[in-house]
Each structure stands twice: as structure tokens, then as C-alpha cells.
Amino acid sequence: MDRENRLAVKIAGISLKTPVMTGSGTFGFGEEFSEFVDLNEIGAIVVKGTTLQPRSGNPGVRIAETPSGMLNCIGLENPGVEYFLADILPRISQYAAPIIVNISGSSVEEYGVLARMLDVPGVAAIELNVSCPNVKEGGIVFGTDPASAAAVVREAKRNTKKPVIIKLSPNVTDITVMAKAVEAAGADAISLINTLIGMAIDIKTWRPILGNVIGGLSGPAVKPVALRLVWQVAQVVKIPIIGMGGIMSAEDAIEFLLAGASAVAVGTANFVNPSATQEIAAGIEAYLKERKLTQVSQIIGQLKIK
Amino acid sequence: MPKIAVDAVVTAHEVLGPGVKKLVVKAPAIAGQAAPGQFVQLKIREGEPLLRRPLSIASVDPVAGTVDLIYRIVGKGTKVLADLPAGAVVNCLGPLGHGFSLDCKAPLLVGGGMGIAPLLFLAERFAKKASILMGGRNQEEMFWPALYENKVQEIFVTTDDGSLGKQGFTVSLLPELLASGRYDRVFVCGPEIMMAAAAKIAAEYAVPCQVSMEKHMACGLGACLSCTCESKDGTKRKKVCQDGPVFWAQEVL
What we know:
The structure holds 2 protein chains of 2 kinds. By secondary structure, chain A is an alpha/beta fold. Chain A has 10 helices and 16 strands. Chain A has helices spanning about 1-5, 80-90, 110-115, 140-145, 145-160, 175-185, 225-235, 250-260, 270, 275-290; strands spanning about 10, 15, 20, 45, 65, 70, 100-105, 125-130, 165, 190, 195-200, 200, 205-210, 215-220, 240-245, 265. In chain A, strands 3-16-15-10-9-8-7-4 form an 8-stranded parallel beta sheet. Chain A has a 4-stranded antiparallel beta sheet with strand order 5-6-14-11, with no helix packed on it. In chain A, helix 6 (about 175-185) crosses helix 7 (about 225-235) and helix 7 packs parallel to helix 8 (about 250-260). By secondary structure, chain B is α/β, with parallel strands linked by helices. Chain B has 2 domains: about 5-95, Elongation Factor Tu (Ef-tu), domain 3, CATH 2.40.30.10; about 105-250, 3-Layer(aba) Sandwich (Rossmann fold). In chain B, about 20% of the residues lie in helices and about 35% in strands. In chain B, the strands form 3 sheets. Chain B has a 7-stranded mixed beta sheet with strand order 10-9-8-7-11-12-15, with helices on both faces. In chain B, strands 1-2-5-4-3-6 form a 6-stranded antiparallel β-barrel. In chain B, strands 13-14 form a two-stranded antiparallel ribbon. At the A-B interface, strand 5, strand 6 and helix 9 of A face loops of B.
């Protein structure tokens, strides 16, 4: 009970037992990690990016380790929304953790279709992926133009009663413009950040290491950038922010909370330590206890500038 | 078979051949339940390298609770790994993946280069029932026969330069071995091109064939989808880390 009192947060109307969720694409559908985390206890499961049709993803090498991070160009491999609804959701919705479904469309209308199909019991919210750097159609286009991102949000909101979260790309000139646009369009929360676009080259073969040439950078290398973006967005919007980008420890997560994130998501760390989400939640709890704080909300956005 | 992540002490770490080392770690829960063909993911130390490194299991000693991992030093991760002294601690996640199917009477193992490592565990599990055909570049790199001594019926060796065994590719000996009709299963581990060639020959002789695939991977748990490969039998894409690394040849080649 004590733990629930301290760590519980509410984001866009969803009650989370802890402020620590999983980053889409780093936690499968949750069940892959059932031996390492209690799926009844984690903040939320954000599942692998789902599309209308099944996708086989990109050919060639899909990951490359880089200093303090990794590049990926998976290319949204997923079994498609129908398979998700029929085969996966019935299994994972039995866990107590809210299920947030990350969706990618190749047109504004497709986001609406997906949002409507996922307006079913067992889905707590949808997260709009408008910032996948690894697919040609859609993806990043919607995430770099404020009017397009807003249109995607409106279309999703029109088609579902579930809370709509939008995951923004860091690959823009001014993140606050994007954030204000999606808030005005009715987004219930913002996830920040998706990966930074990067690349790596094999100097023996003169070829790119990744099959897709470029990919998304994640891991500790991106954390300072992510933190800055979360802080900047927190200054200009009222809707909650889910902070993510290189969170490996409770200390990292606390930085995001102080910067203004109401919850955090753990991504790349899941690959390194499959128990990371739960250990980070426990670490935040210990931090609050040590400071005699009774609510995680007491540190959210409490960064002291002066 | 539950997977676990445990801190494991390095109990021995020795050079086997040029750029090839054997790491022995104490991880009783993994040693006790690992099956041939499975692998572990090692977090070598705090910080860099960031990601775990997948290593196939070359042998286990359930009594001592140890796991043998044979690897070639090829990149940043294995370079750091190679410097670990006995007594160091690594985090060992495993056992991972789907191993070899053992339901046969007269298996022939076919290994190329580092692919010979996981077949050692398989040979031990078959308790002298198996024979092995192995190949490498030259005599210096073919330190493997000594490791298989007294563990298999027969050892057939090829080298690219003929400095040990028969000169030629590993699979060049396969047709005559299978023509003998002595074997009812082929297990192949090596470069993909060699596995494809071996699988084709096995199919010609109607001997069921399993192959062990290798791909870059991050999680090893079926979540990141870095390691998926196309399936050739019309079913869903395969996750090398979870559906494999061992597959029936016709599933993936």
C-alpha cells in the first residue's frame, strides 16, 4: 500500500501503479519479459508499434552498437493490428498493467482506422507514432510538420474514446512548436523522445553498418538531449509528458521527473537489464522515502532554475 | 524452462587458438537446464559495451555448475571480454533460444569455423553416438579435434589449404559421408552460405537437417526484433533468438 501511495500517478486519465512505463519497441508485447518483471506491477506496457497490415521490417543488419548507445532500423516489423487484437491482446490484457498500443499509419486516415479498431476493452490508451525514422511512407513526415501532427491527433481523437498520446520526434528545429500544435489538436499526453536519427559506417568495407543506412539512436547517449526537450516542452504545454531517452537507472528517471515529465518510459535499458523497469521504480521509491516525500508528484517539474 | 539473469564468476579463461578463447563461468541454474544449441547473453561489465553479447554454449558441467563459452575476438565486445581475468564477474542471461532436436540415432555434426563450438555441447549430449565433420582455414585454426576426442565416433577434418585433413570446403566431404547411409540426422553450424550448401546436400540424401543461425541481436528475448529472418516455409518471420537459433533447414534456408 505504501508503495502504491508513493509511486502512483495518473496520466491522461489512466492510473499507473508506478510512473515507469516501457518504451514501444523495446519490450515486445510485455510477455517476453514475464520472467524478469511482474507485469502486474509495472506502470504500463507500451507495445511494439502496430500497423494496419503486417510488416516484415527492413532487410539487412538492424542494430549497431555505438558509443553509449545503439542504432536500430527494425522498420516496424509487426504482425498487424488484426493479429494483435485477436491473438495478443487477450493474453496481455490479463495483466494488471495498463496496455498502451503504439500505432503507425501511412496516412492521416489510417491513424483513424487504427484508433477505431483499438477502441476496445483491454486497451488503456493509444500512442501515435509519428516519428519512426525507419519507414519510408508516413512515419517521420507526420512528426516534423506541426499541421500534419495535429491532423493525426484530431483524426485519432475523432475515432476513439481512449486517451491519445503522441510520441514526438526530436528531429525538429523547435520542439515547442510541435508540442503546442498537438496540444491544441486535443492530444491527452506527449511522449518524448523518439530516437535521434544517426548512422554508422564500416571503414573496412566502406559500407553503412545498418541495412537501412540510417537508423534511430537510443540509449544513454541521447539522455541529455531528451532531458532538454522534455524540459522545454514542459514549459509550454499543460498536458502531461512521458519522458524517455536513455533512462538506465532511477537517477536518470528522477532527472526526467524533475524536468517536468509526469511519467517515464524505459527503452534500451530493457535490452541490457530485462528487470530494469521494476528496479527503476524501486529506486524512485527509495529516493522518495529517503527524502520523506509521500508522492512522486512532489518532484514532478520541481527543477529549480534560480 | 525459465530464463534467468545471474552474476557469474569467471572460473577459467584460456586461449584455445589464434584469437579464440574459452570462458568458463559459474552459473549453476543455467548449467543445470541448458540444452545443446542454446546460448547466453553476457553483460561483460558496467557501462561500455552497453549491450549484451550473445555467445553459444559450448559445454556445461552441471555438477560444477559451470558453463563453457568459446568465442573469437572479433569486435569491441569480445575484446573487452578477452581481458577478463578469472574471478571477474559477468552478468549471464540464459539459457536462451531453442536448441537442437535430439530424437535421432546416428547424428552427423557439421561445423565450420566458430560454428564448431556449439556442436561440442551437442556431441557431449549424444554421448559418443555422433560423428563430426569440421572445417577451417588451416591447421593452426583447427585446434578443435583435440576438444572432440573421446566424445564422438569419428572426426572428419577439412582445411581450405589442406594443412590438416582433406583440402576443400567443409561440405565437400558431406556427399560421400551421407552416401554411406550411416547417418539419420545432420546438424550444421557455420557461415550461412556453408549451412545452405550442407542443407541442400542433406536434402538430396533425404537426411533431416537442422541449422543454427546467427544474427546481430540486442535483447535475446524476442522483443527487439533485431534478429528476425524470413521463413521459407510460408509461416511467420522467425526470431533467431527465440524460435531459433536452431531451425529445421527448410524453415529458414
